[in-house]
Amino acid sequence: MDLGISGKWGIVEAASKGLGRGSAAALAAEGVNLVLNARGVDALEATASAIRATSPGVTIKTVVGDITQREVRQRVLDAAPVVDILVTNAGGPPPGNFRTDTRERWLAALEGQLLSHVEMITAVIDGMAERGFGRIVNITSASVRMPIHNLGLSTAARMALTGFASTISREVVARNVVINNLLPGPFDTDRLRGSIAFAAQKDGISVESAHAARLAENPSGRFGTAEEFGKVCAFLCSQHVGFITAQNLLMDGGAFPGNI
After folding, report:
1. Range list for CATH 3.40.50.720 in the chain
2. How far is it, in rounded angstroms, from Cα 60 to Cα 191?
3. 260, 194 in Cβ contact below 8 A?
4. CA separation for the pair 233, 213 (Å, rounded)
5. Could you tell me which CATH number the domain at 9-185+227-243 has?
6. pLDDT per position as a tens digit, 131-159
7. pTM of the entire structure?
């Protein structure tokens, strides 16, 4: 299927590893020129080089820095001639108990998983509407649908972003600007490995045992891959989704126990 987005310009946040990298690679394969952002210069440049090698016809720019910083957000925006596609993404705060979560940790979570994304969306959405095309995908978490133990900070902030996206999506859909959320469950990323290590330490078991237990929880019997996640993200950025907006697409291998 031709996604109809070749030649468009997109921004992918937290693009150096994991789901961000998978999304960037899939968009580049469809001919999308990209501005990639992440905090670590080495990993980001390695990802950019790999994508250039596999998608030689596209332009790949990199902006190193923490997207929660206003100056970094501006440099990311300035790097793209226009922004047709925005993929918001950020690693969540580490697991923790709400009884010991400080105000500082709460504020950091809100800045990282909510406010920085709100500001990026606000910066690009009117230009998208004026040009008659825009795709915004927020990479959030399965915890938006089903709370995950010890992830209260992340869950609360991501649910707030979900509410914001739902509220504004109706204002721009008639201008062919759609906003959807991708909710990853257990994907084989650094984030998941860190969560498994935390659970192993908390429960006093080996990392191998915690890993096996986490696998056994999922009906698919496996973890998702960044590549398959990226392809779904690319589809949500395509010309074919103009009638799909304000949706939360759960990718969790069937772990969510509900009917809808």
Report:
1. 9-185+227-243
2. 25
3. no
4. 28
5. 3.40.50.720
6. 999 999 999 999 999 888 878 898 999 99
7. 0.95
